[in-house]
Write a structure and sequence with these properties.
By secondary structure, the protein is mainly alpha-helical. 60% of the residues lie in helices and 7% in strands. It contains 5 helices and 2 strands; from the N terminus they run H-H-H-E-E-H-H. A two-stranded antiparallel sheet has the order 1-2. A hairpin with a 3-residue loop joins strand 1 and strand 2. The radius of gyration is 19 Å and the shape is elongated. The two termini are 34 Å apart.
Length: 123
């Protein structure tokens, strides 16, 4: 597992860890039932607080991306297809909102945007 902390990003460190692990799970880099580094080991490797690492793991577990077995550690949860679908739908909605805002600033009509989308879809 590869995690990089960017102190200049402005994003909280726990959120950077959470996002990177989640993305590795969604993309398949981390496979179902694969063991994650212990909270202490990850904190030591990243040179951060154990509390920060625990917060990222707790968030991942709360959202169903990992599960914990007492005295064994944390593992990648089986992929929940519906959860992944919802994640992707949320991303699509965010992109569409940004597209709509940009279209307004460029004086594009909804039809213009739809035409652009259809041309891109065909490629």
């Amino acid at each position: 597992m590869n995690i990089l902390i960017d102190n200049k990003s402005g994003a909280p460190i726990y959120d950077q860890i959470y996002t990177q692990i989640k993305n590795q799970i969604i993309s398949g880099v981390l496979e179902e039932d694969e063991a994650l580094p212990s909270i202490r080991n990850l904190a030591k490797d990243l040179r951060i607080s154990v509390i920060t690492t625990k917060r990222a793991y707790d968030e991942l577990e709360r959202e169903g991306f990992i599960y914990t077995i007492p005295a064994k550690g944390c593992f990648v949860a089986p992929k929940n297809v519906e959860l992944l679908r919802e994640e992707n739908l949320k991303k699509i909605e965010d992109y569409m909102q940004k597209i709509a805002q940009l279209a307004v600033t460029c004086s594009l009509s909804k039809e213009d945007v739809i035409e652009m989308f259809e041309l891109n879809w065909e490629e």
